[in-house]
Design a protein that fits this description.
The protein is α+β, with helices and mostly antiparallel strands. 42% of the residues lie in helices and 26% in strands. The longest helix is centred in the C-terminal third of the chain and has 25 residues.
């Protein structure tokens, strides 16, 4: 029994210590998506965990991308993979500058929403509330639309457009 517990403990410790990866940021797609260069020279696209930044076309999307770029582009980071998204990107917690958590910094500066559907970190909710009350970043806009709502509207509009096009073909 003791050998089993010891083996399990050894496995967990090795898994935890190897789950963190160092990499250099070589690209910033948007506020919450970066590309890193791994030590084996392979590239990996990472979606930031626990935050959702404005989409291209939304107010403050460029600001969020610029902020992320200023914080991590060209720098060494440490990341921990947490999951995969529906597009196959690895979702990861990104740390830089001796322990700064990038998702937290985006939320604190009003450049992203706490992605509460995929996070249990209530501290991020507190940071978002504080950014809202101080009208930081996107919270200057009284009608700010969350990225998930924006994507939903975009999908709905695309579907309506597709149906209208289909109907007009039937009328011909």
């Amino acid at each position: 029994m003791n050998k089993l517990i010891f083996s399990l403990l050894l496995f967990l410790i090795s898994t935890i210590s190897f789950s963190q990866t160092k990499a250099k940021v070589i690209g910033v797609s948007d506020g919450d998506t970066i590309t890193v260069l791994l030590s084996d020279k392979s590239k990996l696209k990472l979606r930031l965990a626990e935050v959702d930044c404005p989409e291209k076309g939304q107010a403050f999307a460029k600001n969020a991308r610029q902020f992320t770029s200023e914080q991590v582009f060209g720098k060494q980071i440490i990341f921990f993979k947490t999951d995969k998204d529906r597009y196959g990107r690895d979702i990861a917690k990104i740390y830089y500058n001796n322990g700064k958590y990038l998702s937290e910094e985006l939320i604190k500066n009003g450049l992203g929403w706490w992605y509460f559907s995929y996070s249990k970190n209530k501290y991020l909710a507190t940071l978002e509330t504080e950014a809202r009350s101080k009208k930081r970043g996107l919270w200057q806009d009284k009608k700010a639309v969350s990225p998930w709502e924006y994507r939903k509207i975009q999908r709905s509009n695309a579907e309506k457009k597709r149906l209208n096009k289909k109907q007009s073909l039937y009328l011909l």
